[in-house]
UniProtKB/TrEMBL annotation:
It comes from the Bacteria. It catalyses: ATP + H2O = ADP + phosphate + H(+); Couples ATP hydrolysis with the unwinding of duplex DNA by translocating in the 3'-5' direction. InterPro entries: ATP-dep_DNA_helicase_RecG, DEAD/DEAH_box_helicase_dom, Helicase_ATP-bd, Helicase_C-like, NA-bd_OB-fold, P-loop_NTPase, RecG/Mfd, RecG_dom3_C. It comes from Paenimyroides aestuarii. Pfam families: DEAD, Helicase_C, RecG_dom3_C, RecG_wedge. Keywords: ATP-binding, DNA damage, DNA recombination, DNA repair, DNA-binding, Helicase, Hydrolase, Isomerase, Nucleotide-binding. This is ATP-dependent DNA helicase RecG. One of its GO terms (molecular function) is DNA helicase activity. Residues 286-448 form the Helicase ATP-binding domain. It is an enzyme of class 5 (isomerase). Residues 467-634 form the Helicase C-terminal domain. The keyword Zinc-finger does not apply.
Length: 702
């Protein structure tokens, strides 16, 4: 019975009907009673305070509530249309109530000399206060409806306003839905968790989040509902990880053999940091077991993830398997190929590159050598996923920057052998811990949190446009020392023409101030053919040009140790993580490197925070935490696609402590009862299985 009532379509709720339901469905995705109850207020207003008109002042920015009567109604003609004006008095002063729409209906329903409670924002003009489109109810109605001193305010849209679905309308719908469904919410948590965390009963929590009797009850209700939401996300992710380790068998790499040892002892280009050694050990232990490895490797730009990836590949080779590395762009695939081939050649390991640009003849040869085992390591882009690409014995698949690949694409990698290969996901985008817990909670996580010795931290400086000559002088000094410079212009995805214009105007200015032949300049932008782009990149890598002017195509571009200065033009138009990624293009050599952020003179508060953070710290994880607070989880890493983060009440930024608690409790529960078989866990199991059915079919793919 309970589920049937909660699943009732919202149009059947008294006071809604088909027309309103259509708007609720389209604008707020509210289809059923349950959806309506899970539509939470975003703030609460104290409705215990009533202002007098003579207490109002021009600087009052809040919404106010007054009690009084309407003594006159008039229609005032304007240049376009007309407005309805009512004179409102509380005996101590007068003000205007104004409506620009819905005159006929409002005029018919307004009552003169009847006590009203009005609520809304005030305007002040020519010494007179006014309130446009006030919320109004008679004092009698107000006394009946005031169940709570804290009035909920729900998210709204322009379309809802146009259809006269106000905050008051939503509140009335909520009152009605609770009349019809109250006490139908079954408890899901066992008594032990309820007692330990002093959780409010579910019925009380739902009611008090919409109609809180006081602040304490509101806080406890929010905590209860946030904890439950985050708990089930963590339970799904952790359970998926444990079940996968039980069910999905992988290849056990027992040997640490000739390839690994020869490279480690004789050809390692630099000593590994302690963080690299720790991570390599975690990967080695993972791959030694029969359970398939699914590990996320996080490390800032330049932390040395690639060498760890390569040595993991050598473990696969030592056990008679092949390995592959998939990158999101040709530029990045080429960079990995160049770096890894240089290391592999020293120990007679054959590496091949497969991208969209690979010629048919070469492609056919790669297919043949992959199948007969001549090729040990294959590096490439999405081209690796094609059905024609068949390995003799694929044992390890490394995916670089996995958020750029869809789950369905990644699943194809699993089908490249009888058992799925071990998976190592690498990212240079530092992910805040809370986001990693919620996005990649089903993966084991390794972090390289230490830069190789000898690397000097990049100095980041912020200059306004007025200091451009000073910056140009600095560039000339660096070029005189034999260094190279990046100058990056923002990419506006909606307008390639505008990107091109910005970049070419910049190029003209630089060509004037850095004349040929004393200075040589490369240009790279999105409208260039790949061949020309690669040729320009190549000139810069070889040191034939000193300045590289580019859009963000070099964000994951080539590794040029001699490039010591990164100038970012219009830095205010870049996100914080993107600025940090761009900065990582320099600082690859032993010399001191610089990142210069150029902006206009007028900066928003958010932009100031971004610039200050960039100048203050080089720590990618600290940067990512600030970015999460500024932008929210939806914009970072494209998490909208994940599905797991469609949070209704919890907030990953504000509720980090609740998330950690939810994860801890989920771990404790699964340790005690991994299959949720105990009688007291049956309500949990029911909700868990319902959520699992809604999840996509790629349930066990990282």
């Amino acid at each position: 019975m309970q589920q049937n009532v909660l699943d009732t379509p919202v149009e059947y709720l008294k006071g809604v009907g088909p027309q309103r339901a259509a708007v609720l469905k389209k604008e707020l995705q509210i289809f059923t009673y349950k959806d309506l109850i899970n539509f939470y207020p975003y703030k609460y207003l104290d409705r215990t305070k009533y202002y007098k008109i003579n207490e109002l002042h021009a600087g009052l920015n809040a919404e106010v509530q007054l009690v009084g009567k309407i003594i006159k109604i008039k229609t005032v003609e304007q240049k376009r249309g007309s407005r309805l004006v009512a004179i409102f008095t509380d005996g101590l002063g007068e003000m205007e109530l104004i409506w620009f729409q819905g005159h006929k209906w409002i005029k018919e329903n307004l009552q003169l000399n009847t006590p009203y409670v009005i609520f809304g924002k005030i305007n002040h003009f020519n010494g007179l206060f006014s309130m446009p489109h006030p919320e109004m109810e008679t004092v009698e109605e107000h006394k009946k409806s005031l169940q709570s001193a804290l009035q909920p305010v729900y998210p709204s849209t322009e379309k809802l306003h146009q259809k006269n679905i106000s905050n008051r309308s939503i509140t009335k719908m909520m009152q009605q839905v609770f009349l019809e469904t109250h006490h139908l919410f079954k408890e899901v948590f066992p008594e032990k968790i309820i007692h330990e965390l002093r959780l409010l009963p579910k019925n009380e929590a739902f009611f008090n989040v919409h109609f809180p009797k006081n602040t304490d009850l509101l806080n406890r209700s929010q905590f209860r509902l946030k904890f439950e939401e985050l708990f089930f996300i963590q339970l799904q992710l952790l359970s998926k990880n444990l079940v996968r380790k039980q069910k999905i068998k992988g290849f056990a790499f027992q040997n640490v053999g000739l390839y690994f040892n020869t490279f480690y002892h004789d050809h390692l280009p630099f000593p590994l940091t302690n963080a690299q050694k720790r991570v390599l050990k975690e990967i080695r232990l993972d791959m030694a077991h029969e359970a398939q490895m699914n590990r996320l490797l996080q490390g800032d730009v330049g932390a040395g993830k690639t060498i760890v990836g390569f040595m993991s590949m050598l473990l696969a080779l030592d056990n008679g398997f092949q390995a592959c590395l998939m990158a999101p762009t040709e530029i990045l695939a080429n960079q990995h190929f160049t770096g890894i081939k240089e290391l592999a050649d020293k120990i007679n390991v054959k590496v091949a590159l497969l991208t969209g640009s690979t010629k048919t003849k070469e492609r056919n040869q790669i297919h043949e050598e992959l199948e007969n085992g001549t090729i040990h390591i294959l590096i490439g882009t999405h081209a690796l996923l094609e059905d024609k690409v068949q390995f003799k014995n694929l044992g390890l698949s490394i995916i670089d920057e996995q958020h750029r690949f869809g789950v369905e694409q990644r699943s194809k990698m699993w089908k490249k052998n009888i058992l799925p290969p071990h998976v190592l996901v690498m990212t240079a985008t530092p992910i805040p811990r809370t986001l990693a817990m919620s996005l990649y909670g089903d993966l084991d996580v390794s972090v390289i949190d230490e830069l190789p010795p000898g690397r000097k931290p990049i100095k980041t400086l912020h200059f306004f446009e007025s200091k451009r000559l000073q910056v140009w002088h600095f560039i000339k000094e660096e070029i005189a020392k034999g260094r190279q410079i990046y100058i990056v212009y923002p990419l506006i995805q909606e307008s390639e023409k505008l990107d091109y214009k910005n970049l070419m105007e910049g190029y003209d200015a630089i060509a004037r101030d850095f004349p040929f032949p004393q200075y040589r300049v490369s240009v790279v932008h999105g409208q260039m053919p790949s061949k020309d782009k690669d040729a320009e990149m190549e000139r810069f890598v070889k040191g034939e040009t000193q300045i590289m002017i580019a859009t963000t195509v070099i964000e994951v571009g080539v590794n040029v140790p001699n490039a010591s200065v990164m100038i970012i033009e219009s830095a205010e138009r870049f996100g914080l993580s993107q600025l940090h990624q761009l900065r990582g293009r320099v600082g690859r050599g032993a010399e001191q490197s610089f990142c210069v952020l150029m902006t206009g003179n007028k900066l928003s508060a958010d932009t100031k925070v971004r610039m200050d953070a960039m100048c203050r710290t080089n720590d990618g994880f600290e940067i990512s935490e600030i970015d999460l607070k500024l932008r929210g989880p939806g914009d970072i890493m494209g998490t909208q696609q994940s599905g797991v983060l469609n949070l209704q009440i919890a907030d990953l930024v504000k509720d980090q402590d609740i998330l950690k608690l939810a994860r801890t409790k989920a771990i404790e529960l699964l340790k005690e009862d991994i299959n949720l078989e105990k009688p007291e866990h049956q309500p949990l199991k029911y909700v868990f299985e319902t959520l699992a059915k809604k999840n996509n079919i790629w349930n066990y793919i990282s």
